[in-house]
Amino acid sequence: MADTDNGWWREFIAELPARTAKLAVVRKDGSPHVAPIWVALDGDTIVFNTGRDSLKGKSILRDGRVALSFDDERPPFSFVLVRGRAEVVEDPAQVRHWAGVIGGRYMGADRADEYGERNGVPDELLVRVVDAKITAAQNIAG
Questions:
Q1: Alpha carbons 136 and 123: distance in angstroms, whole number
Q2: What would the pLDDT profile of 81-113 be if each residue is shown by its tens digit?
Q3: 3-class DSSP assignment, residue 62
């Protein structure tokens, strides 16, 4: 059932139409916070954008531990779980580039530039999930 060695998890995350990930971060009081996010892959690294002043951004800047969940809710059901550390990139060119790539995955390539401009702005962060531990299973009810 676990399939982390042959790379299936990468295909699952990269598949179109794009799945929304669920991001878990640690709030200041130690409680969990979960939010849906859009992502892309840069090789084996999951990347996403978030605002510096959002709850996600503040939590990541304070405590870089993150977890993500991706799932296929259709039988026979599959999932990918990711635990890792957030590496924050504030370089405006990278933030804008990845905002476009991510927006294009979810909204269509014809809108990538629009999302790059909209989300590639000051106080927007690019987050790279590093030191990732992957748990994946496909066709769990098959």
A1: 33
A2: 999 999 999 999 999 999 999 999 999 999 999
A3: helix
User: Which two three-digit tokens encode residue 19?
Assistant: 């799945």
CA separation for the pair 102, 6 (Å, rounded)? 25
pLDDT digits (tens, 9 = 90+) for 27-54: 999 999 999 999 999 999 999 999 999 9
- Measured CA to CA, the distance from residue 112 to residue 106 in angstroms comes to 9
Q: Distance between CA atoms of 135 and 133, rounded to whole angstroms?
A: 7
Q: Distance between CA atoms of 130 and 23, rounded to whole angstroms?
A: 14
Contact of 54 with 118, CB cutoff 8 Å: no
Strand 78-89 relative to strand 21-26, pairing: unpaired
Q: Which pLDDT does position 4 carry in this prediction?
A: 54
β-pairing verdict for 32-37 and 21-26: antiparallel
> Which domains are assigned to the chain?
8-137 (2.30.110.10)
What pTM does this model have?
Answer: 0.94
Count Cα neighbours of 11 within 13 Å in the Cβ-side half-sphere: 9
Half-sphere exposure of 95 (CA within 13 A, CB side): 20
